[in-house]
Amino acid sequence: MRTWSSVPLPHVPGVPRPLRLLDTSTGQVRPTAPGETARMYVCGITPYDATHLGHAATYLAFDLVNRVWRDNGHDVFYVQNVTDIDEPLLERAERDQDDWIVLGLRETALFREDMEALRVLPPREFVGAVESIPEIVEVIAKLLAAGAAYRADDPEFPDIYFDHTATGRFGYESKYDEPTMARFFAERGGDPDRPGKRHPLDALLWRCARPGEPSWEAELGAGRPGWHIECSAIAVNRLGMAFDVQGGGSDLIFPHHEYSAAHAEALAGTHPFARHYVHAGMIGLDGEKMSKSRGNLVFVSRLRADGVDTSAIRLALFAGHYRTDRAWTDSLLTEAQERLARWREAVSRSAGPAAEDTVARLRDHLSDDLDTPAALAAVDAWVAEALRGNGTDPSAPGLVRTAADALLGVEL
Ligand code: ZN
Predict the structure, then answer these.
(1) Dist. CA 156 → ligand 1 center (Å)
(2) What is the distance in A from the centroid of ligand 1 to the CA of 287?
(3) 20, 33 in Cβ contact below 8 A?
(4) Which of 171, 358, 361 is CA-nearest to residue 262?
(5) Fewer CB atoms near the end CB (10 Å): N or C, the chain?
(6) Ligand 1 is a single-atom ion; what residues have CB below 5 A from it?
(7) What is the pLDDT, as a whole number, of residue 292?
(8) d(Cα 47, Cα 101) in Å, to the nearest integer?
(9) Collapsed DSSP state (helix, strand, coil) of residue 276
(10) Max alpha carbon distance in the chain (Å)?
């Protein structure tokens, strides 16, 4: 698929700081240790609705990972998928009497526009599930041949399932106990009660064609892929094993990331799939998680249409820590708009207090598991001094503007 356009990324003077991130599988904040090219995979959208602020918060968190790595001089090989064939897309198309292909293309186009408007650095490869079906089929065939997958005991629809015990490590990524796994598996798209499976926690790899459903001819028999194997195949075929960061929202910890890792590890015979599993918190509205099923969504495109500056959306979401579940409120946006106005006023002055220490603190906080609240506070402190008329350094406003742009993606 076509990715979206990039904004220029200015160079920030001073000394970059290596990035440390919390890894879900170990529960520890650990240094990321990318080579010359850092490798990141972030799970993409299922394009049946517009980008809401929960999506934006996730992609903005990983945009900061990208920016801190680039500040450290790494090239970043960033891959993101689009789940352009899956149950939720088909259900929405059915509900709205829409064509699922048209719906998917329309919402993917809107997502690209939203990401561009939010100044999110684009993935190098933006990959659809449909265009990846041949490579997904190849991976499933290998899992079958290796005995890590099997056909359901169902003569009519012998769907292919993954034996979740195949790697002997299942559960290492989420660290959830079996009752928690069972609950999330059932709540988040799994099919524990499907007859013909060997174990309720075995996950679907290939769904045989049903009448009236889209399907693709393949050596496995006509059908379509499951969700987790899509990300395993797309990630491993581009980034290899043991890539630096696998990212997504915290609702992907299980089952999605657990199975994506298990599928890839069973295929490769090596461990791990990713060195860090990194998860962003959920954004709530009116005390509830923002989600399609609850219908309480604030769309990025709606805010843009209302004339909201996307740098204010960044500042509003960065006011909380990326891992924290937090609420979107009108006052959060208002405060972010006021902060943006103060910052812009300060950098428009002809001089200000020397900003080298401010930029150093900004880097310190971002490299410390993306501590954006502290990073914003560091800039606030400089802005407050500048607005008091303190400081005579003529290069300081430009330095702060450059650092906010490159490290936070905020345009001043
Ligand atoms: Zn994924």
Answers:
(1) 29
(2) 27
(3) no
(4) 171
(5) N
(6) 43, 231
(7) 66
(8) 10
(9) strand
(10) 80
User: 330-347 vs 310-318: helix axis angle to the nearest 10?
Assistant: 110
Distance 411 CA to ligand 1 centre (A): 30
**How close is the Cα of 397 to the center of ligand 1, in Å?**
41
> How many helices (H) and strands (E) would you count in the chain?
13, 14
CB-based contact 80:111 (threshold 8 Å): no
User: What pTM was computed for the model?
Assistant: 0.97
Task: Say how far apart CA 182 and CA 288 lie, in whole Å.
Answer: 23
> What tokens were used for 181?
């796994």
User: How far are the Cα atoms of 50, 55, 279, 281 from residue 291, in angstroms, in the given order?
Assistant: 12, 10, 17, 13
Q: Which two tokens stand for residue 342?
A: 């103060």
Residues of the chain with pLDDT under 70: 290-293
Q: Decide: 42 and 85 in contact? Cβ < 8 Å.
A: no
Helix (H) or strand (E) run with residue 233 in it: helix 227-239
Q: Distance, CA 357 to ligand 1 centroid (Å)? A: 39
Q: What is the pLDDT of residue 50?
A: 86
Say how many Å lie between the CA of residue 332 and the centre of ligand 1. 30
| Ligand 1 center to 37 CA (angstroms) | 21
257 C-alpha to ligand 1 centroid (Å): 7
> Using an 8 Å Cβ cutoff, are 137 and 234 in contact?
no
Per-residue model confidence (pLDDT) at position 294: 74
* In the block, residue with structure tokens 């106990």: 177
The structure tokens 């926690």 sit at 201
Distance in Å, CA 43 to ligand 1 centroid: 4
